[in-house]
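A.,

Following up on our hallway conversation. Structure tokens first:
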């Protein structure tokens, strides 16, 4: 987990051709990570608005104007943060996505407090350490680093830290897309996903996931006049349904 966190931050440096982050940036990332883990954003009684405002405050202190920081959502405790780092060129922005909400965690089910970031034997423990507060912490730290170093990308970078990913996205990405598309409209986006392989503590493969498999439901109905089994009809509804199901099977 620790290696993954620093690998993500190292990747942000590679994207801009900069050296590996300095120790103070690593410390900043860990501080943001700890802050996010220790804010309860569970789907039952948590509050992503608190986390969104905390990250907005950090970004504003680093230099992003208040006008480019939006904390918004359809309900009080399901807030999203949309932040924009202004670039130098007219090309459509790059969108970075991470979700702030986490699934529930009962203290009695854990050997340690799920809402206290704990480091043990080279791993971080806490609700959301992987899914998905590591990404959120790295993205916020990356933008702060860019601001500190005076780096301006050739296009705007939009950061969206969202609610409700664990619960259908109704108050998060789905709501932003439907109600505030202009805030997140981009050429392309980078989100959690993909996979990788590790050998002896070293990453040997990092995969990029280009799409997400979803389910699709079909309702098929066949009708005819019916008849008696002693005099089978040519237009048998059961056979027609069987042929239709075979065609559905080919839709892969």
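Then the amino acids I'd put at each of the 252 positions:
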């Amino acid at each position: 987990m620790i290696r993954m966190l620093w690998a993500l931050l190292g990747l942000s440096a590679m994207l801009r051709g900069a050296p590996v982050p300095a120790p103070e940036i690593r410390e900043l990332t860990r501080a943001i990570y700890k802050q996010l883990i220790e804010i309860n954003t569970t789907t039952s009684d948590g509050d992503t608005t608190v986390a969104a405002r905390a990250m907005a405050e950090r970004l504003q202190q680093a230099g992003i104007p208040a006008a480019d920081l939006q904390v918004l959502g359809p309900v009080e405790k399901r807030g999203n943060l949309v932040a924009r780092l202004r670039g130098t060129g007219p090309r459509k922005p790059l969108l970075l996505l991470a979700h702030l909400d986490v699934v529930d965690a009962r203290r009695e089910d854990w050997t340690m407090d799920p809402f206290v970031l704990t480091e043990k034997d080279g791993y971080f423990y806490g609700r959301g350490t992987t899914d998905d507060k590591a990404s959120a912490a790295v993205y916020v730290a990356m933008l702060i680093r860019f601001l500190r170093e005076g780096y301006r990308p050739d296009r705007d970078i939009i950061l969206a830290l969202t609610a409700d990913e664990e619960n259908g996205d109704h108050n998060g990405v789905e709501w932003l897309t439907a109600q505030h598309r202009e805030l997140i409209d981009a050429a392309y986006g980078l989100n959690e996903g993909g996979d990788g392989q590790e050998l002896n503590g070293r990453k040997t493969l990092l995969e990029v996931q280009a799409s997400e498999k979803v389910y699709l439901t079909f309702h098929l109905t066949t009708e005819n006049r019916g008849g008696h089994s002693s005099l089978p009809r040519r237009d048998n509804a059961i056979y027609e349904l069987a042929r239709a199901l075979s065609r559905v099977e080919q839709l892969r």
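The chain has two domains: 2-206, 215-252. Curious whether your intuition agrees with the design.

B.
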